[in-house]
Amino acid sequence: MKATAWLAAGLLLLAACTPKKAPVLVPADNFKGTVDSLPVALYTLKNGDITLQVTNYGGRVVSLFTPDKHGDYEDIVVGRNSLEEYVHPAGERFLGACVGPVANRIGGASFDVYGETFHTPCNDNGVNTLHGGFKGLDHVVWDVVQSGPSSITLRYIHPDGQEGFPGNLDILMSYTLTDHNEFIVMYKATTDKATPVNLSHHPFFNLRGEGNGSVEDYLMRINADRFIPIDSLSIPTGEIRDVEGTPFDFRNEHRIGDRIGETSDDQIRFARGYDHNWCLNTDPSKKVVTACTVYDPETGRQIEVLTDQPGLQFYSGNFFDGNDKGKNGKPLGFRSSLALETQKWPDSPNHDNFTDVLLLPAQVYQQTCVYRFTVRR
Question: Which 8-state DSSP code applies to residue 76?
Answer without folding.
Answer: -
